[in-house]
Amino acid sequence: MNQKTLIATSIKTALVASIAAASTASVSAYAEETANVERIEVTGSRIQRQDMETASPVTVIDESAIRAEGYTSVDDLLQAQTSMAGAAVGSSTNNGANGVAQVDLRGMGAQRTLVLLNGRRMVNSGSGADSSVDLNSIPVAMIARVEILKDGASAVYGSDAIAGVVNIITKKDFEGFQFDVQGSTTDKNDGETGEISALYGFNTDTGNYTFGAAYSRREGVVQSDRDWTPSAGSSYTPGGTLGGKYQDENGEWKDLETGYDFTQDSYYQTPNERYSLFANMTQELGDDIVLTGDLLYTKRKSNQQLAAQPASTKLNVCGADGVAPGEPCVDLTPEMIAAGIAPDSTGRVEYRRRTTDVGPRIYSQDTDTLRASAGLAGSLDINTGMDWDFSYTYGKNSAKTSVANSINQKKFDESVYNNFDDWMNGTVSQEQLDEISYLEESDGGNEQHTVSAGLTGELFDLEAGAVAFALGAEYRHESGYFNPDEVIVAGEGTAAQQDPTKGSYDVFSIFQEVSVPFTDKLTGEFALRFDDYSTFGKATTWKVGLTYEATDDLMLRGVAATGFRAPSITELYGGNSGSYDYLTDPAGVAKDSQILVNYTSDENLKPEESESYTFGIVYSPSYVDGMSLTLDYWRFKVDNAISRRDTQALMNSCYAGDSSACEMINVTHENAQIGNWDGLTSELTNVGYQDTSGIDFNLNYKFEGAGLDWTINNDTTYLLNFEQDNKDYTGTIDGNFGAYAKVRNNFSIQASQGDWSVMYFNRYISEMENLTSPEDKAEAVLYHNVSGSYHINDEMLLTLGIKNLTDEEPSRVNNGSDGGTVPEVYDTIGRQYYAGFSMKF
Predict the structure, then answer these.
(1) Measuring CA to CA, which residue among 162, 155, 150 is closest to residue 565?
(2) Band of the pLDDT at 338, cuts 50, 70, 90?
(3) Widest CA span of the chain, in angstroms?
(4) Could you tell me which residues belong to the region Disordered (predicted)?
(5) 448 near 160, Cβ under 8 Å?
(6) DSSP state letter for 332
(7) Which residues does 98 contact at the CB level (< 8 Å), separation at least 6?
(8) CA-to-CA distance for 528 and 518, rounded, in angstroms?
(9) Which CATH number fits domain 2-220+270-309+355-643+672-840: 3.30.479.10, 2.40.170.20, 1.10.760.10, 3.90.105.10?
(10) Closest Cα partner for 476 from 105, 112, 124?
C-alpha cells in the first residue's frame, strides 16, 4: 500500500547498524537499506522485520524540520507538539526548576515519559536524585531525528514508559566536516540565543567514526520588560511592615496599600550556557560481529533570578500575655500602638521585610552529565538466521547548585531583636546585612548502569509469513543523592527546610515479543515483560497489538497494554522538604498566595499501574498521490499513582470541620479556623489516579503545483478527558497543574523549488477555563511563524525565520505560575528573529 512507501522513505536504519547503535531497546522509526539485509528496526518493538507497519502511532521530527523551525533546545521542540499537555518545566521556568528542562507527554507528568538516546536509557539528570531526564544534556546540534512513541510501552521498555517514549537519535555514519551556527533575538533586543557546532566523521574499510562539539548560550528576559506584564503586589516590602503596617517617610505607621512589584527581578526566559562533546562509532570486527559505541558529555551552567528573599519573624512583645520572663522581646512605641499595632493571642507581632538591600536571589547551577554506551552485535546461523546483541550503558550526572543572597532566619531573628530600632527606622548597616545573608550551596547527582542482551529472529513459517520473535534480559542499577546546604537542613534559612536524599535500587528484567502474521492482512504483536525490583518486588506487563490491511489504501491498527512506573529515589528516600505552594487560605488570614507546605516521601511506596489503549486508521488514498492520513483514539488510565493529595481541598475540608482532612495535612481544626497553617503537610501516597483520553489526527500531503514542490502537514490533538484524583481538568489551566486545552493544532505549509524553500506554520491552543474560577477564561491563542532556507551552493545553507510573527501576548491566567500567566504554556518572550548558517565540506 502507499503508506508503506511513505514510511519506507522516512525510515532508514540497517539491521546490523541499528542493533548495534540502538541496542535491543531501539525505537528507531526508520531503516537504512543495505545490500544484503532487508529487515529493519520498527518503532516500539525489538523485532526486526521487513515491513514497516506497526500498531503503535509514532511522530518523527527530523533534522530539517528542527532547523526550519529554529529550535535550539530539545524541550522547546517537544513542548510545541500537540501530544504534550500539562506544563513541563523548561527555559521559561524561573522558580523551582533549577534550570532543568523536561518533556510531558499527554500531561501525565515528566516522570511517566521515558527518554531514550539512540534506543538506550538516558541517565536521569538535574540537581540530584532526579526522577526524569534533563533535556538540556542533549544538544540540538547532535540530533538526527526525534521519535515520539505515543503509546504505553512498559511491556517493551520497562518502567517510566506509561505515557510513551521519546527516543532521540544522534548523527552517525557521517563523512566530512560540517560547521553550523544559529542564533535568535527578540524584537525588543533581548533574550538572545546562539549555538555553534562542528561535526567531523570519516569512514574506514570496516567502520565509521563521527565526532561533534557544540556550544550554546541563552540570555535572560526580565518580566517587567514586557509591557503586558501586570504589576505584582507582595506584602513583603523593602521598608518592612510590622503588624501589617509600614512606616512612611514622616515616621508615621500606616496600612500597607501597595505591595512590592517583584516582576522587575524575575525572568521569563532564564539564562543558560552549555558545552557538549559527542561521538559515535561503528566498527566491524569480522565474522559478522559489529562493535558500536556512543559518548555524550554536557556541561550546563544556568541561572534564575527571583526578587530579594522575603524574610519574616514573629517578635515577642514585652509584657504581652504569653511571653515568659527572660524571653527576647521588643517594646512597641506609642506611635506603633496608636497606629493599631498590637500583639496577637500568643503575645507576638509579625515583622516582614523584602531584603532588597541584600540583593535579589540568584540561583546558579553547574551540572555535568556523562553517558557512554558500547555494544556488540552479530548473527547466528540458526533457522533463517538470528541476530544477537549485548550492550553496556553508563550514565552519571553531578551538580553543584547555589543561591546567592539567601537569608539566615536564625541570624535575622537575632538581628531584629538586637537592633530593633535600626530595622524599624531603615538604618540597618552593611555589617548587619552581611551577618544575616549567606551563599546557599548544595550538591547532588545520579548514576546509572545498564547491561542488556537480546536475540531476534524467526521461529517458523505460517501460510502468511514467518513468525518473528525477540527476547532478552537486562540488569539496571540506579542511584542518586542530594545534599542541601547545612543552613537549610538545620531549618535556619528563610527558604523552606529540606533534608538530604540518598538511595539506590536494582532491577532485573526479562522480556519477549512475538509477531504473528495470521493472514496476509492481519498481523498480531505480543509482548510480555517481567521486572524484579530490589525495592518493591516484582511486576509483569504485557502488550497486544493488531494491524489489519483492509485495502491497499486503508490500514486499521490497535494496541492494548499494561504499564507501570517504579517509585523514584526521591519518592522513596527523599527527606522532608518545604514548598511554598500557591494556595488560598479558607480563613482569609494569609496575606500571600504562597503558603509553606512540608513535603514527605515514603520508603514503602508501590509502583504505579496503568492501562493504555490506542485504536486508529492509516489511510493513503491511491487516487491522491502523496497524501496520508492517520486518526487515532487513545486512552491512558493510571492507578495507584504516586501523588500528593489535593492540599487545597483538604484545607477547605479541614476548615469546614472534617477531622480526617485535618489529620491528613497535620493541622488542627482550631488552627485552621484562625488561619494558622503551621505544620501543613503533604505526603506522597499510592492513592492517586489519572484517566485521560483523546483523538490524534495527522494529515501529510506532498504534491507538485505551479512549478513548486509543496508539503502540507497538520497535527491535531483533541482532548476528550483528563481526570486526576476526582478532579476534572479537561479544558482548564492553572499555575499548579498546567494546561489541558481541548484542542491543540499545528499546521505547516512549505513550498520549495531548487535551492530555496519557504514555510509558514502556526500553533493553536484553544480557550481554557481558569481552574479556580471557571467564569474567567484564558483566551485561545494562535501563533504564526515563517521561515525560509536557501542553498547558496552545494556546501552552504542559509536559514531565516520569525517566530510569533504577530507578537501575540500570552493569555492571562488568574492563578498562573508567573507574570499573570503560565510561561510554560504560552509564549512570554514575543516576536523573535532567528537565522542559521551551515557549511559542509
Answers:
(1) 162
(2) very high
(3) 99
(4) 222-245
(5) no
(6) P
(7) 126, 127, 302, 304, 363, 365, 399, 401
(8) 19
(9) 2.40.170.20
(10) 124
Amino acid symbol at 63: E
Tracing cell 518533556 back to the chain, one arrives at 103
What string of DSSP letters covers 196-251?
Answer: EEEEEEEE-SSEEEEEEEEEEEE--EEGGGSTTPPPP-BS--TT-EETTEEE-TTS
388 forms beta bridges with 378, 455
Three-state secondary structure call for residue 133:
coil
- Whole-number Å distance between alpha carbons of 543 and 567: 22
Helix (H/G/I), strand (E/B), else coil: 110: helix
Q: Are 14 and 31 in contact (CB under 8 A)?
A: yes
Q: What end-to-end distance do the CA atoms of the chain give, in Å?
A: 39
Q: Which residue's C-alpha cell is 481541598?
A: 649
Dist. CA 779–CA 773, nearest whole Å: 14
For 151-170, b/e burial (b = at least 16 CB within 10 A) is bbbbbbbbbbbbbbbbbbbb
Task: List pLDDT tens digits, range 509-559.
Answer: 999 999 999 999 999 999 999 999 999 999 999 999 999 999 999 999 999
Under a CB-based contact definition with an 8 Å cutoff, are residues 368 and 299 in contact? yes
Q: In this structure, what DSSP letter does residue 50 have?
A: S
Q: Please say whether the beta carbons of 503 and 533 come within 8 A.
A: no
Q: Write out pLDDT tens, residues 287-299.
A: 889 999 999 999 9
Percent of the residues in the chain that have a pLDDT greater than 70, as a whole number: 94
Cell numbers at 638, concatenated: 493510571
Q: Is 487 helix (H, G, I), strand (E, B) or coil?
A: helix
Residue 18 has a pLDDT of 31
Closest CA to 272 of 395, 363, 199: 363
| Set of cell numbers at residue 121 | 536509557
Q: How far apart are CA 198 and CA 838, in angstroms?
A: 10
H or E element at residue 300: strand 289-306
Band (273; pLDDT cuts 50, 70, 90): very high
Number of residues that make up the chain = 841
pLDDT band per the 50, 70, 90 thresholds, residue 256: confident
Rounded to whole angstroms, how far apart are CA atoms 388 and 366? 40
- Rounded to an integer, what distance in angstroms lies between the CA atom of residue 477 and that of residue 535? 12
Give the bridge partners for 469, in sequence order.
457, 514
- From 268, 452, 243, select the one nearest 333 (Cα to Cα): 243
Give residue 243's identity as a one-letter amino acid code.
Answer: G
- The sign of the torsion formed by the CA atoms of 86, 90, 94, 95 equals positive
Look at residue 694 and tell me whether its pLDDT is greater than 60. Answer: yes
- From residue 303, how far is each of 78, 100, 236, 266, 357 by CA, in Å? 22, 11, 23, 11, 21
**Residue 591 — pLDDT band, cuts 50, 70, 90?**
low
3-state secondary structure of 819: coil
Helices (H), 105-164: 154-157
